[in-house]
Amino acid sequence: MAPVPSGRVHNLINIAAYSVLAAGALIATRQELVVLSPAQALQFTLAFAAGTFLLSPDLDLAEGRVDSKRHWGVLGVLWVPYGMLFSHRGWSHTWLVGPLTRLLYVALIAALVWGALLYLVPGMTLPQWPQTFTLQALWPPLLGYYLSQWLHLMADGVRPDHGARRARRR
Ligand SMILES: [Zn+2]
């Protein structure tokens, strides 16, 4: 098997791809080829950065030492169960399900923290969805997140049908 890129190499690839994309988006907006609001650009950027530095597929190695776990600081320990649950370059490295497992894992932890807070601080209220929330508002952050993940998988040499092939082998 070809050598797997290190966390640092993945970061550099993603930063380079982002720079090209951002330059392209800037030119396209100037030429009025696309309409992109500053808020959408910011959401895309934040999600792309989170996907690159905090939610990398290599968190499946979080039971050991890995770059993306280190970025979480002391909170990195929260990823140890994820690392034990997912084998390296298994489902965590599939194109659709893989990125979703990490989003759900974060949601699960957030729900646990929230539940504990509600228990400890009675009378606390849940944050409300913004009134104007629509599903369409989700595409810039989702695209930013998934793109950061796909760049990682491409650099790893993982094909888009990785998950299907794994399932078929069973
Ligand atoms: Zn990887």
TrEMBL record:
Coiled coil: none
Keyword annotations of the record: Hydrolase, Membrane, Transmembrane, Transmembrane helix
Transmembrane segments annotated in the record for this chain: 12-29, 41-59, 71-91, 103-121
Source domain of life: Bacteria
Stored InterPro entries: DUF2227_metal-bd
Gene Ontology molecular function, alphabetical: hydrolase activity
Presence of the UniProt keyword Transmembrane helix in the record: yes
A Pfam family recorded for this sequence: DUF2227
PANTHER family with a match to the protein in the record: SLL0924 PROTEIN (PTHR39085:SF1)
Name of this protein: Hydrolase
Species per Swiss-Prot/TrEMBL record: Deinococcus arcticus
